[in-house]
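Dear Dr. H.,

I hope your travels went smoothly. While you were away I took the liberty of generating a structure for the chain from your last submission, since the lab meeting agenda had it listed for discussion. I wanted you to have the full record in hand beforehand rather than looking at slides cold. The sequence, exactly as received, is reproduced here:
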Amino acid sequence: MDPLIAIDPSQVYRPELDNADKEQWLKSQGIDTAGIEFDVGRDKNHFREFEESSVASKEQMETVKRTYKLMHTYQTVDFVKQKKAKYEKLELGEYTIMEALDMINSVIDEADPDTSVPNIFHAFQTAERIREIHPDKDWFHLVGLIHDLGKILATQGDPHWCVTGDTFPVGCAFADSIVYRDTSFVDNPDLHNPQYNTKLGIYKENCGLDNVLISWGHDEYLYQVLVANGCTIPEEGLCMIRYHSLYPWHTGGDYTYLCNNKDVEMLRWIREFNKFDLYSKGDVLPDIDALRPYYQSLIDKYVPGKIKF
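The corresponding predicted structure, in token form, is as follows:
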């Protein structure tokens, strides 16, 4: 029987090592690197490339653009209100967190140019990155694992344009930092509605993101699921889940005029989470079965048993 070789994740995940260094280190551990794709430590300039990607295939990019076009056409104030009313009833079924994670194993995000693997791998990649840097914050590890669990909606027949991708406020002007902003909103009726197309639209300045309608997707859905089921993850973690796809705000710097003091305080946590969510997508695929016991202990602590989705 061949000996088992334990790889020190602190070496594999070190961002300062380039791909050649990582390959050399793996070989020094007696590991055959043939066939391994060394995307680990991918240049940060090559993430979120929505025009010409150095990673995604032409077909994948066409899918991404089509998904955003549909999203930016049909995500309106009325649509978001309808989705919130439908899913706040939590009638999809009752599942444990691990059961739900296994369900999203069939989901490959059609709005993401950075990955082409099932979502469950990204869940464990993100969680392990966080665990390495923040070993004392077990709730943060769990957030990394479950942050995309709302994509269970895609397994229930919902199209990806209302499940995945970047989110944005509706009911006010669409910000310039939104992906494909200049070309993809032309058929959205809210763009031409004077009630919705001004800077503040239907909102008051500094009203707080809690009071803003965000385009419908997996973020808001999972947040509502966790709150309704009495999840004890701290508020910082719940905000990471709720707003991690709100790139026009946490990365683009837009919509600050809608934020209150709580949002400003939470922003640093969301940005801290974002670097693990985004830059772990090039990591080697984790051994999910080996990691399950640790993460099950966190689930038992913060969101145990079967919960309503």
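Two observations you may find useful: Residues 26 and 115 are 23 Å apart (CA to CA). The first helix runs from residue 9 to 12.

With kind regards,
E. W.
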